[in-house]
Amino acid sequence: MPAARPRASFEPIPPDFDVRTFVETADNFQYVDRISHEMIANNGMEQFEKLILLHVIIGGKPLVIDGFEEVLDPWTFTPSWLRDNHGEKVENARNLSTKENIPLTIKHYLRHMAKLTDQFFDEPKQYRDKARQRIYLKDIDCPQVWQDKLKENIPSGLFYLNESTGVPGGPGALDELGGRKGRGIARAGDLMSSLPPEMRAENLMCYIGHEGTYTPSHREMCASLGQNIMVNASNHMSEDGKPERPGSSIWFMTETKDRHLVSEYWLSVLGHDIEVENHFAQLVAWKKAPFKTYVVEQRPGDFILIPPLAPHQVWNRGTRTMKVAWNRTTVETLELALNEAIPNSRVVCRDEQYKNKAIVYYTLLKYSSLIKSARAQVEAGGEQANAIQRSVKVRQVQRDFKRLFDLYKNILLSEMYAPDSREHPEFIPYDSNVTCAYCRCNIFNRFLSCKSCNTMFSSEIEEPYDVCMDCYCMGRSCGCQSGYTWVEQWKWKDLIHKYEEWRAQIIDIDGHVTENTPLALQEERRYFGKKTLAQVCQEQLRVRPFVDIKNPEPEGASEDEEPVVDEYGNVKKVVNRKSKQWLAKHKSCHVCLHRHPKWKMAFCSNCDLSYCYGTLFRAHDMMPVNVMEAHNWKCPHCRRVCNTGACRRDPRQHPYEPKGTLLGHDTKKVADVRSVECLVDFSVSNLNWMRKEEGMAQSAMQRRMEQADVDKMADPSLDARFVDEDHAYTRYGITYSPVEDTNGNVNESGDGVHAGPSGGPLQLDANGESYYPDPDMDGDIPRLGQKRGRDEQEDEDGKKRRKSKAKKPKKKNDDTARTLQPKNASGKQYQKEVQRKLLEEAKREDRFILVAARMKGKSRVVKLSLAAGHLEQIRQRPVPERPEVIRQRTPEEVDASGDMRSILQSDVMPKSNALKSVAEKEKDAKTYRVRVEEDDAYSTRKRTTETNGPAKPGRPRGSRRFEEITLESDEELGGEDDEAEYTGRPRTRASNWLARRNEGGEDLPTELPQDFRDGAVRPNREKDRERNRVYADRRKTMPAKSKAGIRPSAPENPSRDSTGNISGHASDQDGVHEEDDQSSEAITFAQQAAAAALEAQQKEEEAKARAAAEAREAEENLRAKMALFPESDNEDDLMNDLLGDFPAEDEPFDEEQFEGETPEPVHTGSPQSTNSVSGRPGMNGKKINVVSAASRHNGDEPSNFATRTTVTAPVSKFTNVNKKAQAIDESDSESEGDIPASAPAPKKSVGRLAGRPSMVPNRGSSSGKRGRGRPRKTL
């Protein structure tokens, strides 16, 4: 298990963090060097490339190139463009708080960024809540338009997948199609471009984050060079006129030469491994670090270059930051990757996505063809030959070719078998997709494959276990441990042929054989001095026993177990005596004293001592392969560095101390489930071996510091990787802008590493090891608005520095104000267009004064000069009594008050019921259960000859089956006008359900008026009439469809004529439906529903009254504002006069408090007419007969059992006012009172409003489709 060691926790950076004070008051902080993009053109591309090589690659220091915001297209790199063109694309956003991915669309994330940011500004300590949502849209594909725009402005040598840094028509350029010259011979800016397109790793990514999102401390993958440019960030005002928090990103960066020191600081002090990339270091941790930290606050247009293997972390600020990042691979990074980065990643099982060995091979192929082309042109003679011989870029290609050949030679040497072996490996053509099942690195050629456990997951699908040679030498394999088959992806003779061909080219470049000229491969093998990696694997395959995982043999008792008995024959004890065979196969370790199988032991060639590989790894920093590849390995005791207890007391021994801390990594979570570690348990730490004694000269941290100081003393210009072809330029031709000296000094206050967060000694654990406690965030972090300074006891020099920098905050504000004034013409045009749209929208929303004031940087506070008497009159004016308007909160406000930790949710995945908003709950369908009977005409049961016979005794007539009816909300019904075409009954308004529901009531209506669609309250009347006419014409050409029902019905539906008499015509659509046997229960249910509807109507009228009062108040406020300003023809002069005296304001304002809600219109006049037949013309005072059937009957004969009810229509006391028809559905079995302002959805279509789709009957089924195709919802 990993070490149980205290670890530094995550501490967020406060939103008001003062970066400038933090950097200028710390000894080990320094700003990153900056240059302008204009200096690149002034000094030339060659000098710029030389700067990148010396400063970033060899020097290992970060660099910032600013000013790109002046050349980037301001119309393209905006959130609105991204939302309009890629808003529907689904990406996985990372929730940094829960370590989970949230699938959502880009527009959904952009819409919620302001809310995600504001949650950290609600309260002073709100940012410290670690459980708050931090949603980071990272590692998303860069739009192709953005890639093309960046390619036009970024230096070609630094851009993604650059194939050549040569100039068009340069030395060695060939003619292309169209008659123009191609690029001259030069090396590629990104060696990833040498791979075939299908093998390349796509690493051009976009990163969109808000306040509180971050990238933990990490190093670029495979020691590559990182490029990151910010293309957009929020300002004080968004594109739609809403306030925003200014966006930026704070970078904490280190040097490449400090990488070992940084790694040891992370392990021993912070308790984290930087290779795992899961910890964001605290501000105090960077302040107390024993190395120099480079800080930069990235803003739009800042292009940051990250050196290889240099740890860094990023913190995003403000409402929005949008960045584009990519990685480049060069010859220098390939050397670091193969020698250091990949071995470190292999220990923690981190993916290798860049295929470094394949890049070496394919780049050699590419450079070899370029060198051949140059050679042919030189032999042809002419001016081109002289230009090629003098070309610096051609010589750079030749040097890179030699260095790549050295890497290729080491790859082949590692894959050579033993001289006397006769292996016949299996051949698989290389496709770059074979990876190690354990460490997940990419395998270039030879590897081992187990065929014994290939059917462990499935008996039908074979999944072989492929392991790289490096992992197998480390003791990593599947449970079989041995019995592997050799597999190769390149023909060995083809690789040898390329080796000899490229070696001949190197000899031709040099002109003769030198001491650095590579030898033949067999000669190189002779001088290799150790066993090759493939040879070690061959030996281990013979030594390690094969384990059949399908039939494992349990480890039983020893064969020599003899029971010991007393004189009476009773067993006293059991002595477990190991057999001679077992003792012959096991050996005791000199350090841990445990007996291990001999194939797990390392035997000394000079003595009879043996060591287990786990002890050698943790106590002596020796990997198993370091022991196995030696021809004659000497143990630590023979080398006089043994650190066992007995050897430490020996004066001849000098105990070895581990170079660094190892915390251990449990790789079982990421490796193949069939994997085992049979030699070393890499999850165990070496903290027990990190001892501090009196005789100890230095600690691991001090040794790392000294090594870093030695590395920094080396001059980059004297490095073997750099050959200056032109000595005319000193300082690389480009001026730096460092803030402090760059002599590489580290923190000299005490011993550096042993200083705690408060300046005192660092706390120690039980083993005497230092660890990093949680610091006091409020004590050491400077905030905006606080007084700057280091300590109260600062010397006079410090006081002078503080006084000289007192005016810098004002300058910073000026810079912020100038960010609204772009320098280039396109930026000015873009800003002018944005401001124009904002002002037009502000006029429509009555926010013109606020928006215009914000654009001019003025305050929203208005000062009015009033006379004392007039002010007193205003104060004594009686305040009119208004009903208190309770503002209904928006769904976002409800979510914010309920659970601020779940602001953003996926718009792709379904939401959970617990997090539904108020609006969603109002839209939720309401489900009721009603009792139904089957329709014999459409039933699947066998019909009986007598359907109207009397019910049998003891058996109830009718079905006991209930059906769920879903009532949709008005909002959903109103928004579905354009759905499926109506295919049901004609769209005449049938009142059957209403009449049957109100049957038995004395004062209840039984039919809707004929003119219920007319009136001024229906604005869409003409549109509906036209729609009905088109539908009627279409309906005439359609065949009539039979009607399906599920409830019992009479043979004929009696219909009502205009005089209210009853007829037996079955085709009349205004007939009265039949009732079931339980008519009395339905009448009671209808009366209760009517009472509920009345109560709901009263509540609706009260809500309308409150809305009217709010509307009157808003109108009065608007008139009062307009009265303050006289009429003016020049609107700009009026605004300038108004805003001229306003004080400036820097902080963003909240405009929501100035926005009012639009009140709903209040209907005035006579009372609204009810849905009653008595409201029809000529029906006042007449009697209406309502008949309900009590049993079924056949044919056209009337029912034998009927109930007749006489209802007298009341005399109308008011004039009907036509009310706007609502989008409602009618049902045969529900009451109107169950849902306010809407009728139940029908089970069978009985007529709909014009423009509403209806249901299509399902023949052969007991029920039709649910309303508009929705699925059935259950309780």
TrEMBL record:
Annotated Acidic residues bias: 965-981, 1143-1158
Signal peptide: none
Low complexity: bias regions: 1086-1096
Keywords for this protein: Nucleus, Transcription, Transcription regulation
Basic and acidic residues: compositionally biased ranges: 878-892, 918-932, 1010-1036, 1097-1119
Pfam families: JmjC (PF02373), zf-4CXXC_R1 (PF10497)
Predominant place of localization: nucleus
Basic residues biased stretches: 800-811, 1265-1275
Protein name, as recorded: JmjC domain-containing protein
Protein species of origin: Clathrospora elynae
